[in-house]
Every structure is written in structure tokens, then in C-alpha cells.
């Protein structure tokens, strides 16, 4: 399974698992990144830090260290 850090700009993903524990995992979940959430990769900085995503109708930037903890799976999404 790939992590959010390995995601490709312009693609859709589903969150499969959040690795980590304690306050770090809670902070990620408090940002709205939970299991089965749909994520769209909006932008990525040249060196991969941070990555900007759309989730739950808002934009969020994640650091590389946090992105490594989020396991994702690519999905096919048809544009409306």
C-alpha cells in the first residue's frame, strides 16, 4: 500500500489506514483525514513537502512526515 507522500498530483485516493499512535494519530484524524475518506491531490511542493489535498470540501496542506503515516489506495473518479 502506498502512502500519501507517494501520491500523484491530479488523482483521487481513498484513505485505507492511518499509521502511528497517540496524539499524532489523533491530530491527523482531527484534520478530517479518516479511514474511507476521499482525497484529491491538488499540489505538491518541488521537494514533496508539503502536499496540498482536498478532503471533505476543504483544502489542507500536510507535511511529509505526516503524509508518510497515511496509507492510501488510488480510485477512478469520473468528473461531473
Please specify the SSE layout and strand pairing.
Blueprint: E1 2-3, E2 12-18, H1 22-30, E3 38-44, E4 51-55, E5 58-62, H2 64-67, E6 70-75
Antiparallel strand pairs: 1-6, 2-3, 2-6, 3-4, 4-5
Report the order of strands and helices. Answer: EEHEEEHE
- Domain module count: 1
Mean pLDDT: 90
Count every helix, treating DSSP H or I runs of 4 or more residues as helices.
2
Please state the CA-atom Rg, rounded to the nearest Å.
12 Å
Largest sheet: 6 strands, antiparallel
Low-confidence stretches: none
Keywords, please?
80 residues; alpha+beta; SH3 type barrels
What's the short version?
This protein has 80 residues and is an alpha+beta fold. It is 16% helix and 40% strand. It has a 6-stranded antiparallel sheet.
Describe this structure in words.
- The chain has a single domain (2-75), classed as Ferrous iron transport protein A (FeoA) (SH3 type barrels, Roll), CATH 2.30.30.90.
- By secondary structure, the protein is of the alpha+beta class.
- It has helices spanning 22-30, 64-67; strands at 2-3, 12-18, 38-44, 51-55, 58-62, 70-75.
